[in-house]
Design a protein that fits this description.
The chain has 520 residues and is an alpha/beta fold. Helices cover 36% and strands 9% of the residues. Strand 1, helix 3 and strand 2 form a beta-alpha-beta unit. Helix 9 packs across helix 16 and helix 12 packs across helix 15.
Length: 520
C-alpha cells in the first residue's frame, strides 16, 4: 500500500513551555522519500487529504536559514554510512465502516374491521305487525354487510330469554315498560358511553333519554329508538255532523259522543269505531282513565272512574259500529267507509291518510273533566348484559338512530323520530297530516301524559286484561259499575304487589308497589 511517511527526523518542532521562556534552537529536516510519492495515488481519499494538510504545515516551517525563527542547532553527526531513517510502521487504514442496514420499519398492526351490524341478533316487539315487518326489514337492509337479523315476537318470551341468561339476543327493541324488570336483575348493559359516542353527530330528545335512565342518575337502560301515540281520524263527510260550536282540535269526550250520535241519526247507521281487537286497552289506560280521574292505577276505582264508565256504557258505546269487536287496525274500516270517525295508534291508522289524504283529516284525542289524557309511546333499544356480539349491537343501534333512517321509519311506519335533523320536507302527505295532529296533541295545555305500564315485566299483559275486563263486564255485560271496579281493582293491586311495580306517570311516585286507592 502506498504511503507518505513523516518521521521524527524529517519533522521536529520544539514548542517553548511558556511564552517568556527562551525559544531553543529549532531544526527542521524536510525529507520525503521518493518512492512513497510515486505510490500515493491509491490511498483512500480521506487519508490523502489528512496527510496533505500535514504536509502543508511542514512546508510552511521549512523556509531559508534567515527565517526569524532564531539561530539553528548544528545538525547531529551521522555515524557510519548514511544512517537510514527507520520507517514507522504503516498505519493501517481504517476499514471502511459498513453502512448499517436500515432497521426495518415495524409492520403496521392490521386494522381491526369495524363491527358489522349484520352480526347482531335483534329481537323486537315493535313494528312487528304482519304488514309492518317487511317495511322494517327493507329499511334496515342497508345496515352492515347484509342488513339486520331481526326476530319479531312478544315481550314475555324475549324477557324470559334474557333473564335466563340465554346469551342469544344482542339488541332488544321494546316499549319503555319492558326494561325495568331487566334493569332490576342487572340483565342490561349500561349504554351511557354509547349515548355519548352517538351524540357526537346526532341530538336525542332529552325527555326520551331521561326515560331510558329509569329513574337512575347514570345507568342508561336503553337508547331511544322511536316514539308514537294515538290520534283520531275522520272522513271529511263526517265534518258536516260536528255539533255546533265544537272545534275538533279541542273537543271533549262528551262532544265526541254527541258527534257519533249525530252521525248515527243522520246516516242511519253507526259510523264511529274503536279497535276492540287491537290496542283497545291503551284507549282505556292512557286516554279514558287519565281524562276522567287524573291517574291510571291509583284512581282505578275512584268516583271519576265510575263517571267514566257511565259515559262509555250509556253515551259512547251505543254509537259504535258493532264490528268494532273484530277490528285491530282502524285504517281498513276508514278506507272502506264502514266508519267515518275512529281512534287508533298512529301506525295503525296511517294507511287511510297515506292512501287517500284528500278524504281524511287527523285531530287530537278529546279531553275529559281532568284534562286531555294521552299516551306517549317510547320505544327503546337495549343491549343484554350477556349479548354475544355487543360491538355489533352498538353498530346496529348506531344505524337505527341515524336521522336518515329515522326519517324512513317515520315515512313508512309512522313512528316518530327521537333525534333532531330528520328531513320532513318530503314526507308522504298522509304522514304529514298525522304529524300535524300529533304536534297539536303534544302541545295541548291540558295534556296529561300517561306512560305505558312500567315494571310489570312479562306480566304486562295482565294489567291490560284487567282494564279490558272492567269495560267488558260493565259495558257489554251490564254488571254493576262499583262492584266491577272494586273487584278488578283488587286484582290490579295483587298484580302490583306481586311484581313490586311502583307507580308511573300520571300517578304520583311511590316508594314501594303502587297502591290502588279505595273506592270513593
Amino acid at each position: 500500500m502506498s504511503k507518505l511517511a513523516i518521521t521524527s527526523e524529517t519533522l521536529r518542532i520544539d514548542i517553548p513551555k511558556t511564552l517568556g521562556e527562551q525559544v531553543p534552537p529549532m531544526s527542521v529536516g524536510c525529507k520525503i522519500q521518493e518512492e512513497n510519492l510515486m505510490k500515493h495515488r491509491h490511498a483512500m481519499l480521506a487519508k490523502l487529504l489528512a496527510i496533505l494538510m500535514a504536509f502543508a504545515l511542514v512546508a510552511a516551517a521549512c523556509g531559508d536559514d534567515d527565517d526569524d525563527a532564531g539561530p539553528q542547532e548544528e545538525p547531529a553527526a551521522e555515524t557510519g554510512d548514511s544512517a537510514e531513517t527507520p520507517e514507522p510502521e504503516e498505519e493501517a487504514a481504517p476499514e471502511p465502516e459498513e453502512e448499517a442496514a436500515p432497521e426495518p420499519e415495524p409492520e403496521p398492526e392490521p386494522e381491526q374491521a369495524a363491527p358489522d351490524a349484520s352480526d347482531a341478533s335483534m329481537a323486537t316487539t315493535q313494528m312487528a305487525a304482519t304488514e309492518e315487518q317487511p317495511k322494517l326489514l327493507d329499511i334496515t337492509s342497508g345496515a352492515g354487510s347484509s342488513g339486520l337479523d331481526i326476530t319479531f315476537g312478544e315481550q314475555g318470551p324475549f324477557l324470559d330469554q334474557i333473564l335466563a341468561g340465554s346469551g342469544q339476543i344482542d339488541v332488544l327493541g321494546a316499549l319503555h315498560g319492558s326494561f325495568p324488570p331487566l334493569a332490576r336483575e342487572n340483565a342490561l348493559a349500561n349504554l351511557a358511553d354509547l349515548l355519548d359516542d352517538l351524540s357526537a353527530d346526532r341530538s336525542f330528545a332529552p325527555s326520551m333519554v331521561s326515560a331510558g335512565l329509569l329513574g337512575s342518575e347514570d345507568n342508561l337502560a336503553f337508547i331511544p329508538w322511536a316514539q308514537a301515540t294515538y290520534i283520531m281520524g275522520a272522513n271529511k263527510q263526517a265534518l258536516d255532523y260536528v255539533p255546533g260550536g265544537v272545534d275538533i282540535d279541542n273537543m271533549s269526550w262528551d262532544d265526541l259522543a254527541d258527534w257519533c250520535q249525530a252521525l248515527l241519526e243522520g246516516e242511519g247507521t253507526p259510523l264511529c269505531g274503536l279497535p276492540r281487537a287491537g290496542l283497545f286497552h291503551r284507549f282505556l289506560e292512557g286516554y279514558m282513565w287519565p281524562s276522567y280521574t287524573g291517574g291510571m292505577v291509583s284512581q282505578f276505582r275512584s268516583s271519576g272512574a265510575e263517571q267514566m264508565m257511565e259515559y262509555l256504557r250509556d253515551d259512547l258505546a251505543p254509537t259504535l259500529h258493532p264490528e268494532s269487536l273484530n277490528w285491530d287496525f282502524m285504517q281498513e274500516p276508514l278506507l272502506s267507509g264502514e266508519v267515518w270517525v275512529a281512534f287508533d295508534h298512529v301506525a295503525r291508522i296511517a294507511g287511510a291518510f297515506n292512501e287517500d289524504p284528500d278524504t281524511f283529516v287527523a285531530f287530537p284525542t278529546p279531553s275529559g273533566p281532568e284534562g286531555r289524557g294521552f299516551m306517549p309511546v317510547i320505544v327503546g333499544l337495549g343491549i343484554p348484559a350477556d349479548a354475544p356480539n355487543p360491538d355489533a349491537a352498538a353498530a346496529a343501534i348506531e344505524y337505527l338512530t341515524r336521522p336518515e333512517v329515522q326519517g324512513q321509519v317515520l315515512a313508512q311506519l309512522s313512528f316518530f323520530p327521537v333525534v333532531e335533523g330528520v328531513d320532513t320536507s318530503d314526507l308522504p302527505t298522509g304522514v304529514a297530516i298525522e304529524a300535524e295532529a300529533v304536534e297539536k296533541l303534544l302541545n295541548s295545555p291540558d295534556g296529561i301524559p300517561a306512560l305505558l305500564p312500567v315494571g310489570l315485566g312479562e306480566r304486562g299483559g295482565e294489567i291490560n286484561q284487567i282494564f279490558r275486563n272492567a269495560y267488558d263486564r260493565i259495558v257489554d255485560g251490564g254488571e254493576d259499575i262499583a262492584t266491577v271496579l272494586n273487584e278488578e281493582g283488587n286484582a290490579l293491586q295483587a298484580l302490583l304487589n306481586e311484581t313490586g311495580a311502583p307507580c308511573w306517570d300520571p300517578d304520583p311516585a311511590s316508594d314501594g308497589p303502587c297502591v290502588v286507592e279505595p273506592a270513593g
